[in-house]
Automatic annotation (TrEMBL), chains A, B:
Keyword Protein biosynthesis: no
SUPFAM superfamilies (UniProt xref): Inosine monophosphate dehydrogenase (IMPDH)
UniProt xrefs under InterPro entries: Aldolase_TIM, NMO
Name this polypeptide is given: Nitronate monooxygenase
Alphabetical keyword list: Flavoprotein, FMN, Monooxygenase, Oxidoreductase
A GO molecular function held by the record: monooxygenase activity
């Protein structure tokens, strides 16, 4: 069985290339997840560190997708979980009640992932466990310890939190693929994330060996995404994604000591706090200036100055607000067209 | 005319997908360039900041490739030039004498590139000018000012010197492509560099819109590359390329104040000096420790400790020393096979 056949067994509605929205906390709610799944992708609800709120989103998704109920009784969406700081025991009842098709675990050690994997498989055996990692070592370790149903490989281009230092999917995917093969674990499908915003990136990820492709930044411009208008505007206006976004821990640290393990930082649109840090200003003063800007901003908020707009290097390719179904269908079509051209692909001038 | 047809007009021996070795200073000499060109790729001699030495390499290449003389009289290889700090006037006689098929300009402002472009086109009108950039803004500016025959887009995964902060080719290529199209300069072919070491990466780059693909790190393991055995061994042994390599200016600064513009740093295998910097040790002390290690190393040199092994994130995929022709042929074949599969590409488990 191929990886895609394997995935289609539990995501029977999915069309290929499989498009997945990143489980962006707060931004990817049931509204986005439902729209992406309905368009033949895999919709994800981002983690909400409040059980009642996540319950509400799952309930909404269940109601809206009742006509799509999958044979094994799973809810045809995925749910993201940020593992560090979240004791699995508190969350199991939610997964037992809603049985999402996929739970996407992220930001944990392989032991933490193991606890979550076993816990979820215990209460909802048909839920598939996808685990996000950002290095070859983490992929191998996690594959061995957890036997996940898929590994999500997050490259350095990704917006939001991720490995502070790492490769893009260009080398990460092939190296993980080879290492899993060497250790007889090539049955595990790989999902690519980071820097992919349109059909060319999706086609490239497929060539690298991905069985599915995640887009985060592109969906920030989806109508169904929960994002303040000025954030969406900043996303649409940003150009030159490798320059206008930067990786740093400052985007968390302006709010006080960051709870994030030191392994991780995050990619945001470059803002005034980042510029302060880059100029060598001590953190205490960076924070003071940040709060001054925040107070000033109560009259007229300049989010580019004081906000943290999480975005990946593909942000320069995001040009307009669209509904999620249009994004999914268009990207899938663009990718399929390029893949069909194959060796004969050559831009006519 | 397509981009590839355009390139084949001046590289008639080239086979597609076009494989190019990075002009790695010191490592890519005539021996490597000749072997890559003979295998149907585009061989490059790296820049040597000594006219006599570069002359010697060009003379060797000319002698060895005399049977391959191209109709317009160009020498069927490329030559890399590091532009900052190199006055064009001092180098023109060399390009006038040897007329390389391609001169690959790197690390300059668009104005510096312009001086070089006009200078070379003046003395060798059939030489094509390729210019390496690492951001969308630099690509657009350079395209406008220089009208290069190709832009080489270097992503963040690349080994050696490059933009300190930037996107990988996953988003860089599509964004540059769209911006050039918008400004009616889509006739300029794009060449992808950074993180590509084998067929999957090459196929991905083609999907992203590349007309040719550069590999540096992979060729560090080529028999024809000029590299001390312990450096080659470090390349072969390195795994988890996004973790074992890091970007930093320390790899230059241990030798004294770096002449490199602040825009750039370099990607190397992580070494003791990098770890010192990461631990917050002041630069003066980092340099002192480096020289202590160097002296100690005269008995038994530990290059992982004291050396700067320039390498990209693809280093974990480089597993053995091979001749350059085998690398070129194998990578081209792997890429072509994947591209042929196109939409039906799906790993069988």
């Amino acid at each position: 069985m191929t990886h895609i056949q394997q995935i289609k067994q539990y995501l029977p509605w999915a069309q290929t290339p499989l498009i997945i929205n990143a489980p962006m906390s707060g931004a990817a709610t049931s509204k986005l997840a439902v729209a992406v799944t309905r368009a033949g992708g895999l919709g994800h609800i981002g983690f909400l560190d409040d059980k009642k709120m996540l319950n509400t989103e799952l309930e909404k998704a269940k109601r809206q997708l009742s006509d799509m109920a999958v044979t094994n009784g799973t809810l045809p969406i995925g749910v993201g979980v940020i593992v560090f700081g979240s004791p699995v025991s508190q969350w199991l009842s939610l997964f037992a009640a809603y049985k999402p098709a996929v739970v996407w675990l992220s930001f944990g050690t392989s032991r933490e992932f193991q606890g979550w994997t076993e816990g979820i498989r215990g209460v909802s055996p048909d839920t598939k466990i996808w685990i996000q990692v950002g290095s070859v070592a983490a992929a191998l370790d996690t594959a061995r310890v957890c036997q996940p149903d898929a590994l999500v490989l997050q490259g350095n281009d990704a917006g939001g939190h991720g490995h502070a230092s790492g490769a893009s999917i260009i080398s990460l995917l092939p190296e993980v693929s080879d290492v899993l093969c060497k250790h007889r674990m090539s049955r595990i499908p790989l999902i690519a994330a980071g820097g992919i915003v349109e059909g060319r990136g999706v086609a490239a990820a497929i060539m690298l060996g991905a069985a599915g492709v995640v887009m985060g930044t592109r969906f920030l411009a989806a109508e169904e995404t929960n994002l303040p208008p000025e954030y969406r505007e900043a996303i649409i206006n940003a150009v030159d994604g490798g320059v206008s976004t930067v990786r740093s821990r400052v985007f968390d640290e302006t709010w006080g000591p960051s709870p994030w393990p030191v392994l991780y930082d995050g990619r945001c649109l470059r803002n005034a706090s980042y510029d302060d840090v880059a100029a060598g200003i001590p953190m205490q003063e960076v924070v003071r200036r940040f709060h001054l800007r925040l107070r000033k901003g109560q009259e007229e908020l300049d989010i580019k100055d004081s906000g943290s707009v999480w975005a990946g290097t593909g942000v320069g390719l995001v040009k307009k607000v669209e509904d999620a179904a249009s994004i999914v269908n268009q990207v899938r079509l663009e990718a399929a067209r390029r893949l069909e051209k194959g060796t004969s692909l050559d831009t006519h001038v």
